[in-house]
Amino acid sequence: MPKVDAIITAGGKGTRLKELCTEKPLVKIFGIPLIEYVLNAVSESRLIREIFVSVSPFTPKTKEYVEKKGFKVIKTPGLGYVEDLKYSMNYLSSPHVFVCPADMPLLRGESIDMVIKTYFKWGRSSLVVGVPFYVTESLGITSTFKITVDGQIVVPRGVSVVNRNEMLNKDHLDEKYLITETLDFAVNVNTINDLKVARKILSKRFQCLRERRRS
Length: 215
Description:
Blueprint: E1 4-9, E2 28-29, E3 32-33, H1 34-44, E4 48-55, H2 60-68, E5 72-75, H3 81-89, E6 96-101, H4 109-122, E7 126-132, H5 133-138, E8 147-149, E9 152-163, H6 164-169, E10 175-179, H7 192-214
Parallel strand pairs: 1-4, 1-6, 4-5, 7-10
Antiparallel strand pairs: 2-3, 6-9, 7-9, 8-9
């Protein structure tokens, strides 16, 4: 199984969390910034070769934080998600790239590996991760963007694996959705409510971990 490079996208404006007076990737849960959870998860993946964090003029503090952690940073112009992602692809050498946002604190390395393995198994130029709408709804999350995939209402979560060359040179990719119920992909932290949901799930995970260590 070939390894891929990873881009963590951390250049958005994060306007819906402005009330917390910090850049969204640096919003904390239990004292840990959102992007730290994602960096840890991607670092745990067995199928990631190199990790890059794309930032923009909107996230200077995130850039500083990531650089202090020793991760590679790509400074994008902040023109928009697609434009900045294509810009970032020019700095990578891997033929295939794992992409995820910096606002997914539930992400874990094993789930990232599952996505990458599925991408190579299916052989498409783009694999996009989506969560069934009923999953996000059951968590109390308001989803502003939904699509229908094979008759099922799905919430895309910004996680994908793409063929780098085709993304740079083609207008459209041969895209396929991986629909999963795992909570690892269920929460993008865009609002205070999303933050509360993520905190609740993480609290249960930490409690289970403590119980395992005691047993």
